[in-house]
Write a structure and sequence with these properties.
Blueprint: E1 4-11, H1 17-25, E2 30-34, H2 39-45, H3 59-68, H4 73-83, H5 89-93, H6 102-123, E3 127-133, H7 135-142, E4 147-155, H8 158-166, H9 186-206, E5 209-214, H10 215-220, H11 222-234, H12 242-245, H13 275-278, H14 281-297
Parallel strand pairs: 1-3, 1-4, 2-3, 4-5
Length: 301
């Protein structure tokens, strides 16, 4: 049996992962899952799928659940919380270190393997795209039998990310009340940006493949960025797909992510450089200092 191929978009939030996810999902034979790490929260709390339906009643995800039969959502969430933690990183790389946490890890891994396999079966996709970003979750995925994980490391300038976390954004997937994405200050964002990107390099060593792209290159030349990814993942070329990518009438079944997934969009992209004028100079200096080693490594300095 052929392995399930998953393109796992890894990195830190507010870096364009939903945009990249949706664009890849427009390619023939590729399917956008959204931030699938939050699938279990979406089921428990009745979030809206990108298609507009309650995730539990979405025609795609209801069929996936019926086929995979993952068990009670509360049990899966308990195993997720016990397994996907920063302190577990050494054990996620070397499972012999899991000790008493081995049972939760193995149950969670078995659940994920069944759900990803069922998603591929239900959608008929050759490649699944998961924009969960979390490198610890990615380490669990990389250990799954029958799943081939290609990491797409998405990087955005830490100062732009800092400004984005400063802004208030609604969460339209939560339909029963007004809800907003969290907001973080420059110190928190800098430390998390460093940590998450450092851990992606750990994940890269465990995955089947690794490709690094930047938010800036994605919005400046999306076709070139998609071609880089598709050649690495499936030895395919996306350069001839401009017409299909520019269509705005696209239905998606992403379970979580940026609010843009609820709105049709064409391939008329431009860099969001608002931070250059609006990020306070003091905050800019702080973020630059704290993230400078990786900024330099990724070509921003």
């Amino acid at each position: 049996m052929e392995p399930t191929t998953v393109v796992y978009i890894a990195g830190y939030g507010r870096s364009g992962s939903t945009l990249l996810d949706l664009l890849l999902g427009r390619l023939d034979g590729w399917f956008s899952m959204g931030e699938f790490r939050l699938f279990w929260h979406a089921l428990r709390d009745h979030w809206r799928c990108g298609c507009g339906a309650d995730v539990e009643h979405c025609p795609v995800w209801s069929a996936v659940i019926a086929k995979a039969q993952p068990g009670p959502v509360t049990d899966v969430l308990g195993d997720l919380r016990e397994t996907v933690r920063v302190r577990r990183v050494p054990a996620l790389v070397a499972p012999a270190l899991l000790g008493r946490h081995r049972a939760a890890h193995d149950r969670f891994a078995a659940t994920l393997a069944a759900v990803y396999s069922s998603t591929q079966s239900v959608t008929g996709a050759r490649v699944l795209v998961d924009s969960s970003k979390d490198p610890m979750y990615g380490l669990v995925m990389a250990s799954l039998p029958g799943v081939r994980v290609h990491v797409v490391h998405l990087v955005r300038d830490s100062r732009a990310v800092t400004w984005s976390w400063h802004r208030k954004k609604a969460r339209p997937e939560i339909a029963k009340k007004d809800a907003f994405l969290p907001q973080h200050g420059p110190l928190h964002t800098s430390l998390e940006w460093d940590l998450r990107h450092s851990l992606v390099h750990v994940l890269a060593r465990e995955a089947s493949g690794y490709t690094r792209v930047t938010y800036e290159s994605l919005v400046q030349d999306p076709l070139a960025t998609l071609s880089t990814i598709t050649r690495a993942v499936a030895a395919a070329d996306a350069s001839a797909l401009g017409a299909s990518l520019e269509r705005v009438e696209q239905v998606n079944h992403t379970v979580a992510g940026n609010p843009m997934r609820f709105e049709p969009f064409a391939l008329d992209l431009h860099p969001d450089d608002e931070w250059r004028e609006l990020l306070a100079p003091r905050d800019c200096r702080l973020v630059t200092t704290l993230t400078s080693p990786l900024l330099r490594r990724y070509g921003y300095l």
